[in-house]
Amino acid sequence: MASVLLIVAMVPILKNLTRASMFASEIERKTQCLILAQNKLDEIKARSVYHYSDSFAASNVAVSGSYLCNVADNADPALRTITVSVGLDGNGGGTLSADEIEITLTTYIARRW
């Protein structure tokens, strides 16, 4: 009888452990995307000090392993809106589709001089 109760109790426990493992890997992937997006924004901010008039727009730039990055730039001469989207290239196609985007960060950059 004790063996049957143990087996019945183990099924939900193993199911929850599997689910927890999936959530942990998803959180790890999103954290990595957030770090990569923030690094890209920091790089663009640093470049904008001396190269404000350059376009920062880019598509499907490899940032780390299978992670890709898209950068949108409105190219406003006074106040630019920069949007960085990062995601894992799950299908290996070399392009970041809308369903693969994990994190999107937006910032404003003003002309400094």
How does this model look, in words?
- The protein has 113 residues and is an alpha+beta fold.
- It has a single domain, classed as Pantoate--beta-alanine Ligase, Chain: A,domain 2, CATH 3.30.1300.
- The chain is 42% helix and 30% strand.
- It is built from 1 helix and 4 strands.
- A 4-stranded antiparallel sheet has the order 1-2-3-4, with helices on one face.
- The longest helix has 47 residues.
- The chain is elongated, with a radius of gyration of 21 Å.
- It starts with a helix and ends with a strand.
Give me the number of helical elements: 1
Approximate strand percentage: 25-35%
CATH topology: Pantoate--beta-alanine Ligase, Chain: A,domain 2
What is the highest CATH level, the class?
Alpha Beta
Gap from first CA to last CA: 80 Å
Estimate the mean pLDDT confidence: 91
- The CATH superfamily is GSPII I/J protein-like
What strand line-up does the widest sheet have? Answer: 1-2-3-4
Q: What is the global morphology?
A: elongated
What is the level-2 CATH architecture name?
Answer: 2-Layer Sandwich
Helix fraction bin:
40-55%
Q: How would you characterize the largest beta sheet?
A: 4 strands, antiparallel
SSE topology string: HEEEE
Tell me how many strands there are.
4
Oligomeric assembly: single chain
The secondary structure category is alpha+beta
Please give the radius of gyration in angstroms: 21 Å
- Whole-number tally of structural domains: 1
Summary of the model, kept short:
The protein is α+β, with helices and mostly antiparallel strands and 113 residues long.
